[in-house]
């Protein structure tokens, strides 16, 4: 009878920032987002013209995961997703991604893009399971390590496998940082076939 409490997914708020930044530094030691990047993202996450949706996984007051989506002009971008190491393999990454895809549907996005380090096979497997397909590379996207990003895309009109129903409302323009150093959406070098 000692089941650990299961994490509740809820909107990320400013008071979550310290815990999120701590997790961010642990999970992305080479290219962690700065506090300013998170603040800027959250500034676009509320109100009728919101273009972002950020969620946290709250387990009895401890933040054990977080994820964010940007949506502009029919295209959504998975900005970030992270799960505390001691929770890896428990399905939380899948729950967070499911939540982002629900919001992409609510934003009426016809496709969802993301960048992932070419050496991050674990995350790539998760994305593949959710119907994301490789469409190209962004050279040196992750700095200062100069690691390439694999760009993956999911067509929201041809909904495969693990897809959820639509959720809350959302809206229109403007995108943001994305993981790595480049802009979140667009400018993809689709010169590779990847895999
Ligand atoms: C990538 C990341 C978010 C995945 O989170 P996660 O919670 O481990 O993801 P899941 O548990 O949903 O799925 C991961 C694996 O665990 C398996 N799994 C899911 N539920 C499971 C369960 N109950 N028991 C055992 N294994 C399980 C999944 O099948 C999956 O296996 P796979 O390797 O065959 O795909 C996490 O590893 C992470 O935070 N990494 C560091 C940050 C990062 O790289 N983020 C992505 C940036 S693009």
Automatic annotation (TrEMBL):
GO cellular component: ribosome
Biased composition (Gly residues): 177-195
Record keywords, A-Z: Acyltransferase, Ribonucleoprotein, Ribosomal protein, Transferase
InterPro entries attached to this UniProt entry: AcTrfase_RimI/Ard1 (IPR006464), Acyl_CoA_acyltransferase (IPR016181), Bact_Acetyltransf (IPR050832), GNAT_dom (IPR000182)
Membrane-spanning residues: none
Keyword Ribosomal protein: yes
Domain named N-acetyltransferase: residues: 7-157
Signal peptide from the UniProt entry: none
Chain intervals for the UniProt region annotation (Disordered): 155-195
Record flagged with keyword Ligase: no
Gene3D superfamilies according to UniProt: 3.40.630.30
PANTHER family linked to this entry: AMINOALKYLPHOSPHONATE N-ACETYLTRANSFERASE-RELATED, AMINOALKYLPHOSPHONATE N-ACETYLTRANSFERASE-RELATED-RELATED
Name the UniProt record assigns to this protein: Ribosomal protein S18-alanine N-acetyltransferase
Natural source organism: Streptomyces tremellae
Gene name linked to the record: rimI
């Amino acid at each position: 009878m000692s089941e650990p409490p299961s994490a509740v997914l809820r909107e990320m708020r400013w008071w979550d920032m310290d815990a999120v930044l701590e997790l961010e530094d642990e999970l992305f030691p080479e290219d962690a987002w700065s506090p300013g990047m998170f603040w800027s993202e959250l500034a676009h996450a509320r109100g009728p013209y919101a273009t972002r949706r950020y969620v946290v996984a709250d387990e009895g007051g401890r933040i054990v995961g977080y994820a964010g989506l940007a949506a502009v002009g029919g295209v959504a971008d998975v900005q970030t997703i992270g799960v505390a190491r001691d929770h890896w393999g428990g399905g939380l990454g899948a729950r967070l991604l499911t939540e982002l895809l629900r919001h992409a549907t609510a934003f009426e996005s016809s496709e969802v893009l993301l960048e992932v380090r070419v050496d991050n096979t674990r995350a790539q497997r998760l994305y593949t399971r959710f119907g994301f397909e490789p469409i190209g590379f962004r050279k040196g996207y992750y700095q200062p390590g100069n690691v390439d990003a694999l760009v993956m895309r999911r067509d929201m009109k041809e909904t495969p496998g693990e897809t959820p129903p639509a959720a809350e409302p959302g809206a229109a323009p403007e995108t943001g940082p994305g993981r790595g150093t480049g802009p979140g959406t667009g400018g993809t070098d689709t010169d590779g076939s990847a895999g």
